[in-house]
Design goal:
The chain has about 450 residues and is α/β, with parallel strands linked by helices. Helices cover about 35% and strands about 15% of the residues. About 45% of the residues are buried. The structure holds pyridoxal-5'-phosphate.
Amino acid sequence: MSGDRNISREVLEKWDDEYVWHPFTPHSIYREEEPLTVVAGTGHYLIDADGERFFDGVGSIWCNIFGHQREEIDAAVREQLQHIAHSTLLGNTNDRPVILAKRLVELAPEGLKKVFYSDNGSTSVEIALKMALQFWQQEAGGDGRKRTKFMGLANAYNGDTVGAVSVGGIDLFHSRFGPLLFETVRGPSPEIYHRPEEKSREQAEREFVENFDRVFDKHASELAAVIIEPGMQGAGGMITYPEGFLRHAREKTRDADVLLILDEVAMGMGRSGEMFACQREGVNPDFLCIAKGLTGGYIPVAATLTTDRVYEAFLGPAEEGRTFFHGHTFTGNALGCAAALATLDIFEDDDILAEVRRKSEVLRKYLSPLQVDENVGDIRQYGLAVGIELVEDKEKRKSFEGAKRIGMKVCRAARDRGVFLRPLGDVIVLMPPLSITDEEIELLVDAVKFGIKEVLQ
Ligand SMILES: *Cc1c(COP(=O)(O)O)cnc(C)c1O
């Protein structure tokens, strides 16, 4: 029966092995690593099929920002069901996405005036790429047609659809798909931890910016846009940028009249202590891509925000073909937009941004003793996002062999302390709900310490 909630964990696992192919999952070792079988969630905790509770330390892969069964969001979705779950935005409209768009524009950095919806982070990026390309073809009086290239940074992650993979720069995820991808101008990664031993951090940071400038200057005249993940490169290993880099990139792109796409799918929606990370840096992009936390992690809704300048290049008599021919069936889904509106209310009602700034410092304080651990190479934090890079030899900054799956093992051990985590290689990722309490911050960090001790000492 479809509503059966009494199927045992054993049966669910058997069916899972038989029928489900999981994303980003090596299936030959999947079961060995003892995956969770979640059947419920309440507050900041996941509940598995045995009724055990685990703190959701990565916010269900970075999207759950206010907990599960959050009363206000549940109520908004239920209320919306009394009206309509979904109707199309193709040539028509619906009250929820209209109201949400107005609120997003009010919250967004200056200059972003139009909201184009889709249903995940990857599509929000595809849309920015396609809009930027078409913009240059239609820009009044522009030399537009020559601007067909995109610049992305090494180690970037912008999603898994073909355009997003083309601008992305993680070889492990992306190299297989080479024949399918368009050519991208590749800038450097801000990754500097693994610099040569004799090189200082300051020198490596300076070289990163110089390399960015060199690549950008060489290609500026053919670039439609540059795409950057502000704050941190997320899936690339939770990598921070040198202070002031984003402002610098904005100045360079503005001077050369190249569009700037900011992928805030991970770092947007409050994680930085501002609603959007670019606001923390005082930067106004031409495109802002948001998804993950937008609906509190409830329902897939994404948005690509852009400027009047971009929007206006798409206006004109229909027969001129300036229309943006792109859209998804579930674009602007009303249930999702209702969840997003409730999520924005929580930001206001609970003064979330100020709380995130405060809790980031609490988290920093709890993390600092870990710095002396002999296997903790680097701790990188941006607001309530953290990457703890584990290494075999701290002095030589030498990583463990990937096959040892140290990161996975440490996260599995942390679960014995009641915390669910998922690493990126040997980088332990902390992306807790923004509504995490001070006590839970302590629980989270203690579980990481316990995991490291169990596996490595
Ligand atoms: C998760 C993520 C994406 C992709 O979003 P999906 O909803 O998984 O398609 C894109 N960019 C960044 C920075 C992300 O973290």
